[in-house]
Amino acid sequence: MRTSINTRSNIKESNIGIATILAFAMIPMSGFATDIYLPSLPGMTSALGITNSQAQLTLSLFLISYGVSQLFVGGLLDSYGRYKISMVSMFICCISCVIVANTHSIYVIYAMRIVHGITMAAMVVSKRAFFVDLYSGEKLKHYLSYFTIIWSTGPIIAPFIGGYLEVTFGWESNFYFLGGFAGLLFILELIFGGETIKHTTPFHPRAIFSIYYTMARTSSFTLGIGMLGLAYSMVMVYNMSGPFIIEHYFNLSPVITGYCSLFLGLAWMAGGFLGKGLINKPFVKKMNINVALQFLAASLLLLTFILFGGLWTILVFAFLVHVGAGFTYNNYFTYCLQKFPRNAGIAGGLTGGVCYVIVSILSYSLIYLLPAKDGHNLSYSYLLLIIISGMVMYRVRMLDKQERSA
């Protein structure tokens, strides 16, 4: 419950338009943090003298810290406001990127990737709450449906840039670029940003825990988050294995890795646009069709790779799987964030946090159990995630019916 309410909003009315654009610009930061150095993963293993799994662990550590941090940062944002916390986080993120680029210790990199996860959680969750603070009704729904589309610009642009940076300047340049992006946003926020929260919730751990408990007990909400995790895991399994398949199995350059990631990033964006375009269509029917088409695409990936074994077989059918994943994410992200509008920071943090914890565990486990050295195990990973998605989606539908009839 909300008690001892304080008014904190101080953003200038004339800056809201620019601030909204900056908020959208912040959304892809987590995608940049994972994808900018994907083409550099094989190069990092050579330059640092580490194994493939150690390089892949830098991704998993970011995902875990990013996810776990979101579980707690939402309460802080609802109690102390969005602006100062996000500003401090941007500054620390920028500094930590410079540290990564100037060390050759994998353990320092691990530590800084955890810092990246924590700071980007605060940055991204604060901007999700920004929209709920300033907008409502159909306009809010309209903006929320853009989140997946805007976020997907990270996976599209970042590896494309990263491939060229890797070839031209080395893996360190990826983190200089990431730090520069954070620094630019910091400066623009200083000029145009401001606090948006209208009413703060006093930071009483017991009360905040009670809100979390209420959300966690809403089964359709938690299973909806599970659908988000399963959808993004399909993308992350490719992200963690694709560079090694392309650069080791097919003996191609990091630039090709960047182009392939750009192509599959477009798939995620296409799924987001498709989700937005079909936002008013019957939810159950469109999700059932989506899962069936994903299963067909993953099955064809396995069959065609056995018959032909070319890179094109991976790209064509992985593209279709990723379109479906973006479609699922777009629909369920909007579904989850509208469940608890009065606690937007906590709901956004819990949604993103649990999602990324699921992604980190699932993707690293699948890569460990089914090392995607070629197209075979990649297709098996897709099929497993799609089958589980179908089962979870069915359960969400049944629980949603029960909640509405209660």
Any overview of this molecule?
- The chain crosses the membrane at residues 57-77, 84-101, 107-131, 143-163, 175-194, 215-235, 255-275, 287-308, 314-332, 344-367, 379-396.
- It is a multi-pass membrane protein.
- Residues 19-404 form the Major facilitator superfamily (MFS) profile domain.
- One of its GO terms (biological process) is xenobiotic detoxification by transmembrane export across the plasma membrane.
- GO terms for molecular function: sodium:proton antiporter activity.
- This protein is mostly helical and 406 residues long.
- The chain has a single domain (13-401), classed as Growth Hormone, Chain: A, CATH 1.20.1250.20.
- It contains 17 helices and no strands.
- Helix 13 packs across helix 15.
- The longest helix is centred in the middle third of the chain and has 31 residues, at 219-249.
